[in-house]
């Protein structure tokens, strides 16, 4: 189990394959809140990408390596677990 208190603001979140997923805004409950401006799953609203906060479950964290949070899922699969919850 990962110690969520070790996850800090501005850490890079990467998939198991090293692909950039986002940047930590902060930990909220059992999820990592990604910054609006750097969430990989930006949604289209007909006028272009709309920056929104996305969340990654803490359970996907495999390791913390320096200033990076490495997930157990690949970058492509990690975005499938993202949500926009409050």
CATH architecture: Roll
Question: Which series of helices and strands comes N to C?
Answer: EEEEEEEEH
Distance between the termini: 24 Å
How many strands appear in the DSSP assignment? 8
Average pLDDT works out at 82
Number of helices: 1
Q: What is the fold-level CATH name, i.e. the topology?
A: SH3 type barrels
Spatial order of strands in the largest sheet: 6-3-2-1-8-7
Q: Helical amount among residues, as a percent range?
A: under 10%
> Major β-sheet, in short?
6 strands, mixed
| Class by SSE composition | mainly beta
> Proportion of β residues?
35-45%
- Within CATH, the superfamily carries the name PRC-barrel domain
The residue ranges in which pLDDT falls below 50 over 5 or more consecutive positions are: 41-47
* CATH class (first level) name: Mainly Beta
Measured on Cα atoms, how large is the radius of gyration? 12 Å
Estimate the global geometry from the Cα principal axes. globular
**The number of domains:** 1
Description of the molecule:
With 86 residues, this protein is mainly beta. It has one domain: Roll (SH3 type barrels), CATH 2.30.30.240. The chain is 8% helix and 43% strand. A hairpin with a 4-residue loop joins strand 4 and strand 5. The longest helix has 7 residues, at 75-81. The chain is globular, with a radius of gyration of 12 Å. The protein starts with 11 loop residues before the first strand and ends in a 5-residue tail after the last helix. Mean pLDDT is 82; it is low at 41-47.
Q: What's this, in brief?
A:
By secondary structure, the protein is mainly beta. The chain has one domain: SH3 type barrels (Roll), CATH 2.30.30.240. It has one helix at 75-81, and strands at 12-14, 20-28, 31-39, 43-44, 49-50, 55-57, 61-65, 68-71.
């Amino acid at each position: 189990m990962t110690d969520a208190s070790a996850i800090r603001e501005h850490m890079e979140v990467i998939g198991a394959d090293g692909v950039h997923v986002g940047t930590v805004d902060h930990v909220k409950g059992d999820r990592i809140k990604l910054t609006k401006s750097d969430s990989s799953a930006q949604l289209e609203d007909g006028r272009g990408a709309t920056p929104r906060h996305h969340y990654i479950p803490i359970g996907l964290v495999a390791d913390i390596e320096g200033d990076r949070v490495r997930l157990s899922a690949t970058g492509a699969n990690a975005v499938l677990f993202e949500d926009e919850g409050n």
